[in-house]
Amino acid sequence: MLSLAGISYRYAGYAKPVLHDIDLTLADGEIVGVVGANEAGKSTLCLVASGLAPGSIGGALTGGGLTIDGEAMAGKPLHEFATRVGIGFQNPATQLSGVTGSVFEEVALGPMNLGLRRRETVERVKAALATLGIEDLAEREPRRLSGGQGQLVVLASLLAMRPAHLVLDEPTAQLDPEGTRLVGEALRGLAATGTALLIAEHKTDLLDGLCSRVVVLDGGRIVADGPTRAVLDDPSLVDRGVDPPARVRLARALGAVGLDPSVLS
Amino acid sequence: MTEVRLEDVGFVYPDGTRALADVDLAFAPGESVAIVGQNGSGKSTLVRHLNGLLRPTEGRVLHDGEDVAGRRVAALASRVGIVFQNPDRQIFAGKVRDEVTFGPRMLGRSEAEAATAGAAALDIVGLSESMDANPYDLGYSRRKLLAIASVLAMDTPVLVLDEPTTGQDARGIARVQTVLANVIGDGRTVIAISHDMRFVAESFARVVVMGDGRVLLDGSPAEVFAESAWPVLASTYLEPPYAARVGARLSLGSTPTETALVEALRARA
């Protein structure tokens, strides 16, 4: 279980918090989507939920705290977070280590740093690459990958760490539909093993089929939290700067010209 | 105005990876073209040939009929401006103002001309109020818009954008669409790489589909997203936009955009 209770957070050097009174609990195996306009606080929420903020990047929780599997994480050193909650950044270029010569090594870096035996590391790397259908990238240079390939490699690195829970900031932003589908399947598989997943995304079509619950952020506050359909079908979503899924948008467009939206289903 | 042509272009990276094969494409002045295809299909490699950042290992790249093989990137940059996928590989200045005027200054424009061009570009992308900000204090989506403005300010006849809508929310995508409509309205050529099929169908007159370094399809959104082309799209792991899928299911013909679908349903009602 991943739980944020009453969290407010401000970045280092800033007087005002960018997250306010965030109450959000993810049960084991639950996939929760986070939507909101740009600069609503989605990426900051990801950093806080994974312990990187304030643990690594500084700033301060001005209220509340993070609890993982019943343990309060305040003041814990970063390595304590490493196996409990993984984070995938928006931009793969900021996450790839830059110190490895092949994708295989890149994905092995995390497990090796956990001190795992070589055989176990190799098994985990192979399994992670296979899950995302990128075995053929194993020998490629990480720097020579396309944006979408980089995003899959970053996710493979996270899968190989086998974190108890996972936070992802726009995991499919640079992916083609096939990559997006593979990521969706991998995440469903991961959730089925009890991992709680928090996913910030602009692609509401992806969240529509993946999440049991969706949270809406606006101005650093949670303004809606409920079952996926109820949240994504809510007309106020548009006013929050969030594009609803295609099925919702099209049904409204048909309704607006007096046509029956039921032809869509 | 510049016509850009790729003549039987092939490209193999030094490590032996083949990224392009037999690419034969012409982009006429004023055209708006989207390039789509699976990750690693050669899209980014292709656009890097347009301004000489990469040189073909086979075939030729021509600007207005002239082979650009002997021309330096600096010379070609005044004709073809490229906005990269990752704004952080492009942005370097400490102030937004300096970032957007860098391009025009490098092209030899005066300080005053560069300032005017920079201000106009920031206005188009909606960043006028951030003129004195540090680019790294802007969120990802605004850094991305800044990267677009920096290239817009160079006023190149050809504008190339690699994944302009990634990381953008609904308003950001609408902003990018407005920028493109502006540039196209000026008679400039726009070429964009995208995975967002709805954006592609709505914003471009022509769509080039790539797979394994080759051109698989080249036509209007209605042609490329027509049901008959779906097997080819599937071969490069692309899905037609939602509106096209609904239109086909309801036997309405090719309806690549939501507007086209609503129109077709109205016509039938």
How does this structure look, described?
- The complex is a heterodimer of chains A (265) and B (269).
- Chain A has 265 residues and is an alpha/beta fold.
- Chain A has two domains: 2-84 and 164-264, Rossmann fold (3-Layer(aba) Sandwich); 94-162, no CATH class.
- Chain A has helices at 42-49, 52-55, 78-82, 92-95, 103-113, 118-131, 147-161, 177-192, 204-210, 228-233, 236-239, 246-256; strands at 2-10, 19-26, 31-35, 60-68, 71-72, 85-88, 165-169, 196-200, 213-218, 221-227.
- In chain A, the strands form two sheets. Chain A has a six-stranded mixed sheet, with helices on both faces.
- The radius of gyration of chain A is 19 Å and the shape is globular.
- Chain B is α/β, with parallel strands linked by helices and 269 residues long.
- Chain B folds into two domains: 4-79 and 156-225, Rossmann fold (3-Layer(aba) Sandwich), CATH 3.40.50.300; 95-154.
- In chain B, 38% of the residues lie in helices and 22% in strands.
- Chain B has eleven helices and ten strands.
- Chain B has helices at 43-48, 73-76, 96-106, 111-125, 140-152, 170-185, 197-203, 221-224, 230-235, 242-249, 258-268, and strands spanning 4-12, 18-27, 32-37, 58-63, 66-67, 80-83, 158-162, 189-193, 206-211, 214-219.
- In chain B, the strands form two sheets. Chain B has a six-stranded mixed sheet with strand order 6-7-8-3-9-10. A four-stranded antiparallel sheet of chain B has the order 2-1-4-5, with no helix packed on it.
- In chain B, α3 crosses α4 (111-125), α4 (111-125) packs across α5 (140-152) and α10 runs parallel beside α11 (258-268).
- The A-B interface holds A 36-39, 43, 90-91, 93-94, 140-141, 144-149, 152, 170, 173-179, 202, 205, 238, 241-243, 246-247, 249-250, 253-254, 257, 259, 263-264 and B 13, 15, 17, 37-40, 43-44, 85-86, 88-89, 139-142, 163, 166-173, 195, 197-198, 237-239, 241-243, 246, 250, 258, 261-262, 265-266, 269.
